[in-house]
Amino acid sequence: MKSIKFIALLLLVALMTSCAGLGSGVKDDDVLAVIEMMNAGQTEALVESSVLPFVFDGEILESETQINLLWSGLNKAGYVLDNPLILQQRPVMAEDASIFSETWEIKTYFKNLLTENDTYVEVQGAAGKLHMVLRPSKTGVQIAAWKGVNE
User: Fold this and answer.
1) How far is residue 46 from each of residues 34, 39, 65, 129, measured CA to CA in Å?
2) Is 98 helix (H, G, I), strand (E, B) or coil?
3) Angle 67-140-30 from CA coordinates, rounded to 5°
4) Cα–Cα distances in Å, from 108 out to 33, 89, 122?
5) Left if phi > 0, otherwise alpha if psi is -120 to 50, otherwise beta: which for 2?
6) Is the entire prediction scored with pTM above 0.85?
7) Beta strands of 5-125 (E only): which ranges?
8) Which of 110-147 are b and which e, b meaning 16 or more Cβ less than 10 Å from the residue's Cβ?
9) Within its chain, how far is the Cα of 79 from the centroid?
10) Is the pLDDT of residue 20 over 70?
C-alpha cells in the first residue's frame, strides 16, 4: 500500500512540475536574448524572429522587406538598449494597443491578431523604455510588436 501511495505522489509531483512550465512561455532569458540581438545588430536574426503582420510603434508592417528595413534602420541609427531591466511581463491584453497607438488599425490588431499565449513586456534601459509583445515559439520567441521610447 505504501508503494502505491509513493507512486501516486511521484505522479502528482511530475504532473504539477509539467503544469508549472505552461504559463506564458516567455522567460526573462528570452526577453534579454531579443534585446541582445538588437544591441548586437543581428538584423537577419531579428527579421527571422519577427511575425507578420508586425507592429512597430503605431504602424503595421506587412512584409519581410519592411521588417528588414526596420531592423536595418535601427541598427544603422545605433539604437541600443543598455542596462536592460524587465519592469513588467504579463499576458497581453487588447487594451495594450494604446501603448503603441490609439488608431483603429492598432486596436484591431491587438484585439484580433494576438493570442492568449502572447506576452506584453516592458523593459527599462539606460536611455529609455522598450515595449514589446513576444510570442513563444519552438525556437525561443517571436516578436509581434515593438516600441522604443527615449527618455
Assistant:
1) 8, 11, 12, 19
2) helix
3) 90
4) 28, 22, 21
5) alpha
6) no
7) 50-56, 59-61, 85-91, 119-124
8) beeebeebbbbbbbbbeeebbbbbbbbeeeebbbbbbb
9) 18
10) no
Q: Give the mean pLDDT of the chain.
A: 86
Grid coordinates representing 71 are 531592423
Q: Which cell goes with 83?
A: 542596462
Determine the longest span between alpha carbons in the chain, in angstroms: 69
Nine cell digits for residue 78: 545605433
Give per-residue pLDDT as tens, 98-143: 999 999 999 999 999 999 999 999 999 998 999 999 999 988 899 9
Q: Cell 501516486, residue?
A: 8
